[in-house]
């Protein structure tokens, strides 16, 4: 089927655009001499892992289930970080991963013996206390009171004999200049320890595949760190892997008039694109414009009972009619990994669009998927 023919709602992954992103990331990996990992928390459509593994070095996970998925479906390294690991799961985690990163000295000391026995490379997350977030405070791991990472004041040099590497993750949808700022803070606070490390993981949030991203600066900084400290460097972008490589197809069910015309869609911000409400985030819309920019402005909302389940106000060159189809863009990342069945709303189907434009069904969901999550 073509994109215009698939039943709605549906997520559609554009394999051609995914490949374009991967080629850019593979170019960074080669030029900088680093390893690029897929952060599965942003994108975990494992049907495409055979493609991604041709370009990237492995996956990162936020816990046991993602680690297992990376090990089972991706041919590459498996790295895992969590704020804390459960005693009941640590053996399974260690049997699955190649690198494990602990969030605190307490967690490190608690699990270090098992980690060593498993032959897993051990790391510690650090907090450089350098906030570069301008718009997304919700995603700032360096904010006051953050639970993520050990600060310079808390860092115990006696830990150096227990770890192989350091990990920081401070960015969110940012360019290389913010990485430069962060690295200065990292080197000021932890540079004396980096000389004793085997690797440094610079985390995610690098918007590498964005058009205005400064690839040369990223590559030069990675090469500088490698040369200065003789460490292997990892980066673990999630968004950059599948940025602008997916769509959410939806249909207009009704139009409600109350001060503004509201399109009731068969998709939902709350259920199908939570970042719209959490960040907040305004998804791009094919043939849609800012409110008031074109002749016909509508509020796009959903079929749930939540009053605030609103996607945003958009304008169009032509009137929108009941039955029309709309296509939200940049829907490969932080969408189906976070979706839910609140209000009994069904999960969108998953499609893969090949480079000829043909859409192939990966999986469809129904009532049993809703019911099975409840009891």
UniProtKB/TrEMBL annotation:
Top-level enzyme category: lyase
Cofactor(s) it depends on: pyridoxal 5'-phosphate
Keywords from the named record: Decarboxylase, Lyase, Pyridoxal phosphate, Spermidine biosynthesis
MF terms (GO), sorted A to Z: lyase activity
Orn/DAP/Arg decarboxylase 2 C-terminal domain residues: 12-331
Coiled coil, from the record: none
Gene3D superfamilies in the cross-refs: Alanine racemase, Lyase, Ornithine Decarboxylase, Chain A, domain 1
InterPro entries assigned to the protein according to its UniProt record, in alphabetical order: Ala_racemase/Decarboxylase_C (IPR009006), De-COase2_C (IPR022643), Nsp_de-COase (IPR005730), PLP-binding_barrel (IPR029066)
Pfam families documented for this protein: Orn_DAP_Arg_deC
EC annotation from Swiss-Prot or TrEMBL: 4.1.1.96
Superkingdom of origin: Bacteria
UniProt-listed NCBIfam families: nspC
PANTHER family found in the cross-reference section: CARBOXYNORSPERMIDINE_CARBOXYSPERMIDINE DECARBOXYLASE, DIAMINOPIMELATE DECARBOXYLASE
The protein's name: Carboxynorspermidine decarboxylase
Source organism: Streptococcus saliviloxodontae
Upper classification of the organism: Bacteria, Bacillati, Bacillota, Bacilli, Lactobacillales
């Amino acid at each position: 089927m073509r994109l215009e023919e698939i039943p709605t709602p549906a997520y559609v992954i554009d394999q051609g655009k995914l490949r374009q992103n991967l080629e850019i990331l593979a170019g960074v990996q080669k030029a900088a001499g680093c390893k690029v990992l897929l952060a599965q928390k942003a994108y975990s459509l494992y049907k495409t892992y055979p493609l991604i593994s041709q370009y990237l070095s492995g996956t990162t996970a936020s816990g046991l289930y993602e680690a297992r998925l990376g090990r089972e479906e991706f041919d590459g390294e498996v790295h895992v970080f969590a704020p804390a690991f459960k005693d009941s799961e640590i053996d399974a985690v260690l049997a699955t991963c190649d690198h494990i990163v602990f969030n605190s000295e307490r967690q490190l000391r608690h699990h270090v013996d098992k980690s060593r026995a498993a032959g897993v490379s051990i790391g510690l997350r650090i907090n450089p206390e350098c906030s570069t977030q301008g718009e997304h405070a919700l995603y700032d791991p360096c904010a006051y009171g953050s639970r993520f990472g050990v600060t310079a004041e808390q860092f115990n040099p006696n830990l150096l004999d227990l770890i192989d590497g350091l990990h920081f993750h401070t960015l969110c949808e940012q360019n290389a200049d913010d990485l430069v700022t962060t690295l200065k803070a990292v080197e000021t606070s932890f540079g004396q320890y980096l000389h004793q490390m085997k690797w440094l993981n610079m985390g995610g949030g690098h918007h590498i595949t964005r058009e205005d991203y400064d690839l040369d600066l990223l590559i030069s900084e990675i090469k500088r760190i490698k040369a200065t400290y003789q460490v292997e460097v990892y980066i673990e972008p999630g968004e950059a892997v599948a940025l602008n490589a997916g769509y959410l197809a939806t249909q207009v069910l009704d139009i409600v008039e109350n001060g503004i015309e509201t399109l009731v869609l068969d998709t939902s911000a709350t259920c199908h694109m939570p970042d719209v409400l959490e960040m907040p985030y305004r998804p791009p819309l094919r043939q849609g414009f800012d409110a008031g920019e074109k002749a016909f402005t509508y509020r796009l909302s959903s079929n749930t009972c939540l009053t605030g389940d609103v996607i945003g106000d958009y304008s169009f060159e032509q009137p929108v009619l009941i039955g029309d189809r709309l296509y939200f863009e940049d829907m490969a990342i932080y969408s189906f990994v976070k979706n839910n069945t609140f209000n009994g709303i069904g999960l969108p189907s998953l499609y893969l669009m090949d480079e000829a434009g043909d859409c192939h069904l990966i999986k469809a969901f129904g009532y049993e998927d809703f019911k099975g999550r409840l009891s």
